[in-house]
Amino acid sequence: MTTKAYGAHAADKPVGAIAIERRAPGANDVQIDIAYCGVCHSDLHTVRSEWPGTLYPCVPGHEIVGHVSAVGDAVSGFKVGDVVGVGCLVDSCGECGACHDHLEQFCEKGMIGTYNGPTPDAPGHTLGGYSQRIVVDQGFVLHVRHPEEQLAAVAPLLCAGITTYSPLRHWNAGPGKKVGVVGIGGLGHMGLKIAHALGAHVVAFTTSESKREEALKLGADQVVNSREAGQMKAHAGSFDFILDTVAAPHNLDAFTGLLKRDGTLCLVGAPASPHPSPSVMGLIFGRKSIAGSLIGGIAETQEMLDFCAEHGIVAEIEMIAAQDIEPSYERMLKSDVKYRFVIDVATM
Predict the structure, then answer these.
(1) pTM here?
(2) What are the backbone angles phi and psi of residue 216, rounded to the nearest 5°?
């Protein structure tokens, strides 16, 4: 089925209108008419070959919300008209230990990404959500229970939401826990909202004094300017967990020093070059950990969507037309968005 999409044919070509082919729904497939697709920093890195291995044509987009328009004969959990979402992965081996543990993002044979992943469908790799429709195996489709008027702002939950929810849940953020969130951007603003809703005492870290009031509105109980030594020192040794969302190299010791004994600093930002090597002594004296986390499995992503619907949580977004994707990339590089761009697919 020929489908309108936006993508690029080479790293040095702008994202523009292209025609792609989608398979007819198989027995286990759900066909989705896409209403909204979020714009993630990963989209830009991939389409411009800033990460290795991009296959062209490249159609990015893994924060997808839309309506079911067809289902295969063996599909049981979805029907035409359902509001659904698709996140960062559309397949996995289903056989390895990670898949059996509902952690498909860590599939030992390699998860299949919503774009740029191997597939038997033409052109041989997956094409993402910057398009009018997509066909996905029912096991990787998610129910969206937010009201219709919030659907555009739900789209970023499929990446930014689960990327922050999963580590907050894994490290038991909640009542009685002091949780830090480093960086107030596309990921960080979701981390603040979710940590607050989980019941933790939430501290936002920012290098921008101008974000103080915004952080408080997003759910922070306190805000620390991480460039102010006195403000940082006042929190030394007091955090159970710190979620670091910053995608640029920075000094991790500044944050491991704020952890309690057995505290964890979890990295979810992915910088293009490594962080300066952290002090081993700072970890040894306190049995502290530096960890990482990658999105979440399908079951946990559904749990996150349901949690956010129950608590009225959505992303802070700016809607754009498909024709404005390239300018949005340039603005994103300058952090000129509060806090996530979302494409109105009707503009295709």
Answers:
(1) 0.96
(2) -65, -40
Residue 265 shares a structural domain with residue 285: yes
pLDDT digits (tens, 9 = 90+) for 186-222: 999 999 999 999 999 999 999 988 889 999 999 999 9
Average pLDDT, the chain: 96
Q: Cα separations (Å) of 89 from 8, 92, 103, 295, 325?
A: 21, 8, 11, 10, 22
Give the number of domains in the chain: 2
Q: CA 276 from chain center: how many Å?
A: 25
| pLDDT > 90? residue 318 | yes
Instruction: Identify the CATH number of the domain in which residue 225 sits.
Output: 3.40.50.720
Q: Which residues pair with 265 in a beta bridge?
A: 242, 290
Distances (CA, A) of 50 to 73, 134, 332: 41, 25, 15
CA distances from 6 to 14, 33, 250, 321, 347 (A): 10, 15, 34, 11, 11
Buried b (16+ CB within 10 A) or exposed e, 254-277: ebbbbbbeebbbbbbbeeeeebee
Residue % of the chain over a pLDDT of 90: 95
Report the relative pairing of strands 133-137 and 112-113 from DSSP bridges: unpaired
In a domain, 309, yes or no: no
- The 10s digit of each residue's pLDDT in 129-142 is 999 999 999 999 99
**How many angstroms separate the CA atoms of 278 and 128, rounded?**
37
Residues paired with 68 in a beta bridge: 32
Q: Which domain holds residue 92?
A: 2-158+297-302+314-347
| In a shared domain, residues 96 and 166 | no
Q: What is the mean pLDDT of residues 305-319?
A: 98
